[in-house]
Amino acid sequence: MKPFTYERAESPAAAAGAAMRHPGAKFVAGGTNLLDLMKLEIEEPMHLIDVNGLQLDKIEPTPEGGLRIGALVRNTDLAADERVRRDYGVLSRALVAGASGQLRNMATTAGNLLQRTRCPYFYDTNQPCNKRLPGSGCSAVDGASRQLAIIGVSEACIATHPSDMAVALRVLDASVETILPDGTTRTIPIADFHRLPGDTPHLETVLQPGELITAVTLPKPLGGTHIYHKVRDRASYAFALVSIAAVIQRDGSGRVAVGGVAHKPWRVEAAEAELPRGAKAVTERLLADAKPTKDNAFKVKLVERVLGAVLAEAKGA
Amino acid sequence: MAAAAMRSDVHAQTETAPAAVNPVTAPSLAKVSLKVNGKACDLELDTRTTLLDALREHLHLTGSKKGCDQGQCGACTVMVNGRRINSCLTLAVMQQGSEVTTIEGLGTPENMHPMQEAFVKCDGYQCGYCTSGQICSAVAVLGEIKEGIPSHVTEDLMKPPSWDSSEIRERMSGNLCRCGAYSNIMEAITQVAGGRA
Amino acid sequence: MKFETPATTNPIDQLKVVGQPLDRVDGPLKTTGKAPYAYEQHEAAPNPAYGYVVGAAIGKGRISSMDLGQAKAAPGVLAIITAENAGKLDKGDHNTAKLLGGPEIQHYHQAIAVVVAETFEQARSAAQLVRVKYEAAKGSFDLASVKDSGKKPKEGFGGPPETAVGDFDKAFAAAPVQLDATYTTPDQSHAMIEPHATIAAWEGDKLTIWTSNQMVGWGVGDMAKTLGIQKENVRLISPFIGGGFGGKLFLRADALLAALGARAVKRPVKIALQRALMINNTTHRPATIQRIRLGATKDGQLSAIAHESWSGDLPGGEPETAVSQTRLLYAGANRLTAMRLAELDLPEGNAMRAPGEAPGMMALEIAVDEMAEKLGMDPVEFRILNDTQVDPEKPERPFSQRRLIECLRTGAEKFGWDKRNAKPGQTREGRWLMGMGVAAALRNNLVMKSAARVKLDKSGHITVETDMTDIGTGSYTVIAQTAAETLGVSLDKVTVRLGDSTFPVSCGSGGQWGGNSSSSGVYAACMKLRAAITLKTGLSATEAIFADGKVSAGGRSVSLAEAAGDKGLEVEDTMEYGDLDKKFQQSTFGAHYVEVAVDSFTGETRVRRMLAVCAAGRILNPKTARSQVIGAMTMGVGAALMEELKVDKKRGFFVNHDLASYEVPVHADIPHQEVIFLDETDPISSPLKAKGVGELGICGVGAAVANAIYNATGVRVRDYPITLDKLIDQLPAVA
């Protein structure tokens, strides 16, 4: 870990201002991913802005009938919130499917969105990785890739996004609210928030340097049956091989997003029209352009079968 | 061919290490006050010091263990302001003013916490290295169930979580035990939960 | 004391303390965070500097240049030690690769430097500033592709490289029912929760290391040899060990580099291997490819058994002895076993819990299940039919005890084996496919020389000292029980001090010999103390009864406190063994029963129930022994379902080198586990009539899980771990 100076910000505007004054600064909230990466010097901020004191830890109703989740709401509290459990069950389920109780007590809503990949080559600083060191090459394409992406990949990168929460937010069409270093604010639809790797896998979101997430908003509840189905080798405390967030209505229509298969939560709205025709039909549309490796080709089949499980569960509900 | 490619890759990595940053920057020090097991502690630390290292290396409270230093084993679990966290993944300076409870704060060999007693009685440990984290987590888990926080195996999100073994197992899964004492740890927690539930 | 003839009645048989399910004596320390591990010696080694290890970035090759300039100039840095400036270093007898590499690199993450600084944060940061250029060489990293270049290894711990009895080829060809199948087990990591860690301090030419090491004697010897100093000048202290499983049998880089660092900076230096380095820097259980051929008569009698195993290791390394159990487990007149060892440039392979038998049984006990199915026989009955009471390769050599049949029968009854549907894929519970599996367990019982010192003080308190270690096995407790039983005192009158090389040399912790052998050493010393007490008190040695803190004979009683007198008494003895282990085959036996549920949609396997029945001689403490067995069963579940070091065959290293990506079982993976110990004593093993049990518990578990998955799904997977991707194509179609 490189030495860094440290300050506690008192307000979102102050935090954004501090970021402006300290190029290369990082915001820290839960720290569960950032500190790990700083120890390995994959992240090397010279200045750390602690945003834990920003009072962004409330969950409030929006005038549109949705919820506005403060950036600093801990994963535990978000999953346990009565309104989330009642109206956005898929989000609650996704949150508690991730990490461990300890980590969920630390991890924040904004930080969860900004998690970096768990590709082992990204973590091993001896190995080439375009995400960690642009232009150095991708070790994973011809390396161990069982966990990695099957769709939306590029020659430069086959990393996945590790978040469970983000998959649920994608299916719920959440929005991300931010403040920029100059004090202006903007709202980014979750669909646009994460990027595909392309030639620039080191750029993972559309956030600009020093831009701070202040909240995530959920549109008004969708009703229907909320399911988050996560598949992994061990029964808990593991990143997804494949996960599916789904909201299925009584008439069989619904929404589906997939985790563990791409650089971002994977959702193809057009594929959802196939839901009444079953898992196979949806998967064919959803993963039409899949380019798996030999190691992770099984994920294509797995998505179809997990979706089958989700639809069976929805039918039974 | 493979060897040649390897070589250039490694060169690229080592030679392009960030030159813009002065590598010999002096450490930055910061003052931090914590309340650890009820006792006020004032420290001046390198900002890079994790809460875990502050406890172990500066306060000599070595009950909290470093197993991975990456949030992947749970051996460093302590309670901060009443909630369990991985102390290896938070900086000490980020915990200014926090109340920290470690295994040493739960009980002593002469005056053990009921959970510590249950672990001894049920042989819920072997090598002992994950044990502090297991016990801190176990105490917190019972609180989390009581608070109604759902877990991955909670059947109905709108009903209070149950006290059955699948709930406890799921909630304890952030604490690895390579000796494999899980079945006995469950016995211990279930005994204590039985007395409280 | 020498143990040459089978044990007769002795003080241990009283079973007032031994054999009781007592709480661990070190329990209150371990559960309150007060047990000091290697890295936690603030009082003994104050003001330490911190070391951080730099690992090699290539799998094989050379360092072409190393630039320490920036690192040396970094704040707080006190010294950087590399092969270039470390002085002459030898290699320990138990090490295959050098612990400090360079310029030649033998494996990935081989230590090439240690940076010593005032603080941990400074050392870690400066280590990143060590600039290294490499010339990578082409290495051999893929067992399957180099398998056929494997050579016959020399005879080692696991017996001869080949054995043959009768005419296997002829018998196999003639057998009406045949099985010929190949199985693979992957490289696995010990993944103990405490990293390899050491504090080293020099006083003149004398070195003290507090380190996490299972074998104190080996550690002292290899440290002395590596540094070129006298063994007498090395003191190794290892009172608590946060898990070993074979991964801490040897001197490793943390200890050597701490010693070198402390010598350079003239103050104590502490080092814990960072987690990301542990897997490639230290040892692992090597992968195997195993071919098993079985021939049987139509009524299920095995007539031909062949087991061949291929594994790899660095030049000078040893094979994974995966065929050893096949030499002993089943009858059959025509037999063949063979091991081949190929050279690989992956990190060093070595012992992990039940080396040989653990991966060997994973293959053999699937093969037996497959054969039973071919024969249309119940797999329990098939095993019972082929039981043997003598070493099948040397029929003149009986087993000292062999109650495998009773283990299998008891287990079948307790587990409800009769409810199993022999036809696979038939039992459903909602979306889950349910199945049951069984496997036999065998692990040899080794007895090792072990010494102890016993002191009796004027208050009647006993102190036992031996360099034995407690790696979670319960050594502190069973040793205290042994001393209390032998000397007729209560447990609270005994203090046990372990893990210090100034104490008499013990057997150490490994190969499941620790509990029996170290306690036998303590028994020998306690018997010597009894003799000293009767001599001093003038009581008849043959009539003396030691009970309730007194020794009594001929109507006279003397308290031990009185017997000790002001100066106290102190004796030392060693338990040594004759040739009973040559005359008799000494093994431990068991049966594992497992029920699994396989998700019919996803192929995820979850274990629902587990039962082990063990016949392992006298159980010194049923509570700690049970823990050993459930722990081993848990590791067996990991081996069956998830554990695999993924080899990057191009770059030559284990890719998943942390605890998130090398998955081991978590709480949610492990159901309530049942263990039954058959009531047994084995007087041929030791005066305690005990054997080992800590490794028996893992032998066969993997296969029992695999067989249960087959029973649930009808899919036979012969390549471990059995992850969902190996099942998914053959599961029932989804609507």
Key features of this structure:
heterotrimer, A: about 325 residues, alpha+beta, Uridine Diphospho-n-acetylenolpyruvylglucosamine Reductase, domain 2, Enolase-like, domain 1, five-stranded antiparallel β-sheet, three-stranded parallel β-sheet, B: about 200 residues, Ubiquitin-like (UB roll), DNA polymerase, domain 1, 7 helices, 5 strands, about 15% strand, PaoC-like (chain C), oxidoreductase activity (chain C), Oxidoreductase (chain C), Ald_Oxase/xanthine_DH-like (chain C), iron ion binding (chain C)
What is this structure's SSE topology?
The complex is a heterotrimer of chains A (317), B (197) and C (735).
Chain A: E1 5-8, H1 12-21, E2 26-28, H2 34-39, E3 47-50, E4 59-61, E5 67-70, H3 75-80, H4 82-87, H5 89-97, H6 101-106, H7 109-113, H8 120-123, H9 165-171, E6 175-179, E7 185-189, H10 190-193, E8 212-218, E9 225-231, E10 242-248, E11 254-259, H11 279-286, H12 298-316
Parallel strand pairs in A: 1-3, 2-3
Antiparallel strand pairs in A: 4-5, 5-8, 6-7, 6-8, 9-10, 10-11
Chain B: H1 2-15, E1 29-36, E2 39-46, H2 51-58, E3 77-80, E4 83-86, E5 99-101, H3 103-106, H4 114-122, H5 131-147, H6 165-171, H7 182-196
Parallel strand pairs in B: 1-5
Antiparallel strand pairs in B: 1-2, 3-4, 3-5
Helix pairs in contact in B: 4-7
Chain C: E1 2-3, H1 27-31, E2 49-55, E3 61-67, H2 69-73, E4 77-82, E5 104-105, E6 111-117, H3 120-127, E7 131-136, H4 143-146, E8 162-165, H5 168-174, E9 177-185, E10 197-203, E11 206-211, H6 216-227, E12 234-237, H7 253-265, E13 269-272, H8 275-281, E14 288-296, E15 302-313, E16 334-343, H9 357-375, H10 379-385, H11 404-415, E17 427-429, E18 432-444, E19 450-456, E20 462-465, H12 475-487, E21 494-497, H13 514-537, E22 545-547, E23 550-553, E24 556-559, H14 560-564, E25 569-577, H15 580-583, E26 587-599, E27 605-615, H16 622-641, E28 647-648, E29 653-654, E30 673-677, H17 701-713
Helix pairs in contact in C: 9-17, 12-13, 16-17
Characterization of the model:
The complex is a heterotrimer of chains A (317), B (197) and C (735). Chain A is an alpha+beta fold and 317 residues long. Chain A has helices spanning 12-21, 34-39, 75-80, 82-87, 89-97, 101-106, 109-113, 120-123, 165-171, 190-193, 279-286, 298-316, and strands at 5-8, 26-28, 47-50, 59-61, 67-70, 175-179, 185-189, 212-218, 225-231, 242-248, 254-259. Chain A is globular and about 55 Å long. The mean pLDDT of chain A is 97. Chain B is 38% helix and 14% strand. The longest helix of chain B has 17 residues, at 131-147. Chain B starts with a helix and ends with a helix. Chain C has a 7-stranded mixed beta sheet with strand order 4-6-2-13-10-11-12. In chain C, strand 23 (550-553) and strand 24 (556-559) form a beta hairpin. The longest helix of chain C has 24 residues, at 514-537. The mean pLDDT of chain C is 97. Chains in contact: A-B, A-C, B-C. Chains B and C meet through helix 1, helix 2, helix 3, helix 4 and helix 5 of B and helix 1, helix 3, strand 7 and helix 16 of C.
